[in-house]
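Contributing new complexes? Match this layout with S-adenosylmethionine.
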Amino acid sequence: MKIDILTLFPDTVNAVLHESIIGRACKKGIVEINCRQIRDFTDNKQNQVDDYPYGGGWGCIMMAQPLKSCLDSVLEDNEGRSRVIYLSPQGQPYTEDTARRLARDYDHLVLVCGHYEGVDERFIEKCVDEEISIGDYVLTGGEIAAMAVADSVCRLVPGVLSDEECYTGESHWDGLLEYPQYTRPENWEGMKVPEVLLDGNKAKIDAWRHQQMLIRTKEKRPDMFSKLSLSEKELKAVERNLKGCVECRKAVPEDLHKIVDITKQAKQILQKRGIPQWLGEYPSRETFSDDISRGELYVLTVDGSVEAFFMLSGEPEPTYAVITDGKWSSDEPYLVVHRAAVSDAYRGSGLSDILFKNVERLALDTGRKYLRADTHKTNKSMQRCLRDAGFVYRGNVEVDTEPGFDPMRYAFEKRLKYKK
Ligand code: SAM
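Output block (do not edit by hand):
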């Protein structure tokens, strides 16, 4: 790909395009970018490139002759498929599709930068193949637009980026916006990286990213979203978009069937991971029914559908009376979180973070200072949730469980902070 940029400010353009990724591609000879000073092609002694508009009006117009002579000089020794493009606010809106077309169909682009009030119309009529606008606003010159076109075309040329995937997964490639990206640290100013990205499960990560692309496109660019042809399943997944539609409320008996379903899903996962928790019939429909009648069971709904639950109780938990290999911070009354689970559909979606935020909110309303919870030592994902929510490991407690299974649990505690 060879790009010639016809401009009155070659130093400005060179400074930008010969830096970083595109600059390195130029050095390696993968792309060639030259800036031509239009002023060098004037046929008048003053090197004048512009003049007053016929008919009067504000500003000056770039003359056709220097532009044409400059253009001829770049076209004469070029044998490839050339395309002459005038950057103009009157051009077709520039998109990733245009960049792809230019990278695919041509090996020589001539980008003409206007200035002042624009260029003599006869030059456009005679010499320009297409006009491109980089947006519905007016710049003082075409240089910024030319640099945008050159940069976006060059990065599609094989060898400029390390892999095709570098651009095929990005925003606008398939009519979608890219998923959110994160880098270290895992927890920045209390904001955590979504859990699904941490467990290395490629299939799960891909599915999450795809869903995020759809959700983002819907939220940020409904115009793009409306052009997608999506399957029923994809549309449903997007509708389950978490933002702004999660509610936490006390569970009612009508929620029981969904709570039991989520429990089944959670038990399957525990079993698959070999975690000896929620064994046999526990926790049963009756367990949750009792929780509801005591007013201690809460559900999280997404768009009205129950997708998670937890039990929060102010009653002392008998099995926490004895703690080994450590101790609780205080003997003061505490609250205990038990029986927390998220549906399969929302596992790894961030709903568990929201769940623990609600636990804390409700706990703060009681005026108590401590929250306690427990989980089995092999239940790493629950331990991560607890730690992420600010709980700390305090020692081991022994719970009632099915005979033959490990009754020991890691005991966690969180000291609640009240705003002064
Ligand atoms: N008088 C022109 C009009 O109203 O259509 C605008 C001229 S503008 C001030 C000067 C030059 O900036 C143009 O010749 C063009 O090369 C460039 N330019 C301004 N806005 C642009 C845009 N949105 N996209 C591409 N080039 C633009």
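Reviewers usually confirm one structural detail per submission. For this one: The domain at 246-415 is CATH 3.40.630.30 (Aminopeptidase).
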